[in-house]
Write a structure and sequence with these properties.
349 residues; Aminoglycoside 3'-phosphotransferase, Chain: A, domain 2; five-stranded antiparallel sheet; 46% helix
């Protein structure tokens, strides 16, 4: 039987007091350069797996992040993200990390503190060139492979395919599932299994960099006054191919998550042209179209697989934090005509 998600208590309010108590401790203040300031704690933003609060001071403001769950099966989720931000801290397009505490002593969840970046979400109609420059900056950041902690996409298509099979099993086994959607998604997963042969392209010509993997418009902070654009929320970062981020960015499952925008062929061409213009590598520039072509079906598959899992879990035993906007979007996505519009063109012989 489906649960009524509207009656769920929001932990955002509960943890506000816990955060207020935590910041009274002095252990983090010197590290963050805010030892003498009185801070006010304000709700900032929340997702399915993290609560974010603004620590507002007279001279400086910070973000206090409380981790409530993980999408990558890591007990040290907050440390994983913090270490990623440390790798990125000289990029100029990501928030600077300040402090992390996963001891669960003063607060029963892992927490991190980072730079506060005022601004608004990305506008797909006006900010695409800036987004392209952010991606090109991150994807070219010099990072030693042997020294980083990131999950590696050594078999990029197989990795996504395996994850999707696990996610879709939740939907396939659920009595809530629509039979037409179940049958079509079974066809899609069979097709994707055969299409995995394209993985040989990435194995023969690997190009590793830091990728975010969650690049919806709400994870960009645009400040028109400072003329800056930053990419935040690095909880699911990977060491993978740049096509991962770019395909996620222009996937309709990403753009429609919080907006009504879908890329036109002309708009996509403009975005990719700007990205390639800022690349130093001729090889990556020349091979980018093939990388995107082979990766895109699997990015779509992951998006719809997570949506199918979430649609069931939101009504049964979801471990993350329920969000009304997410629930409405999941209901929109789990429509047979919409799902067919995504995959049928790709599956044509």
């Amino acid at each position: 039987m489906a649960k009524d998600i509207s009656s769920q208590r929001d932990p955002f309010d509960d943890y506000l007091i816990k955060v207020e108590n935590y910041i009274q401790s002095s252990q983090w203040r010197d590290i963050c350069g805010i030892s003498g300031e009185d801070l006010k704690v304000l709700p900032l933003a929340r997702g399915e797996y993290n609560l974010n609060y603004l620590l507002r001071g007279k001279e400086k403001s910070l973000v206090f992040r409380v981790n409530m769950g993980t999408q990558i099966d890591r007990d040290d989720q907050i440390v994983y993200e913090f270490k990623t931000l440390k790798l990125l801290q000289n990029s100029g397009v990501t928030p600077i990390p300040c402090y992390v505490d996963d001891s669960r002593n003063l607060l029963d969840r892992g927490i991190s503190i980072m730079e506060y970046l005022p601004g608004r979400s990305l506008d797909y109609k006006s900010d695409l060139r800036d987004a392209a420059r952010v991606f090109s900056t991150i994807h070219q950041l010099p990072v030693a492979e042997a020294e980083n902690h990131l999950i590696r996409e050594t078999e990029p298509l197989t990795m996504i395919f395996t994850e999707c099979k696990k996610l879709l099993s939740t939907y396939f086994k659920s009595p809530l599932a629509d039979p037409d959607i179940r049958n079509f998604l079974m066809e899609v997963i069979d097709w994707a299994n055969s299409y995995r042969e394209k993985e040989q392209y990435f194995l023969a010509d690997p190009w590793f960099c830091i990728v975010n993997t969650e690049v919806n418009s709400g994870n960009f902070i645009v400040n028109p006054f400072k003329q800056t654009t930053h990419l935040i929320d690095w909880e699911m970062a990977r060491w993978g191919d740049p096509s991962t981020d770019l395909c996620h960015f222009y996937s309709p499952l990403t753009t429609l998550w919080k907006t009504s925008f879908r890329f036109s062929p002309e708009g996509l061409s403009c975005f990719l042209t700007e990205y390639k213009k800022n690349l130093r590598s001729d090889h990556l520039r020349n091979s980018l179209e093939e990388r995107l072509h082979f990766k895109f079906p699997f990015v779509l598959l992951r998006g719809i697989s997570w949506s199918a899992m979430g649609w069931v879990a939101y009504q049964t035993d979801y471990e993350g934090m329920r969000d009304e906007h997410t629930w409405r979007t999941l209901q929109r996505y789990m429509n047979i005509d919409f799902i067919r519009s995504l995959f049928s063109p790709l599956m044509q012989p």
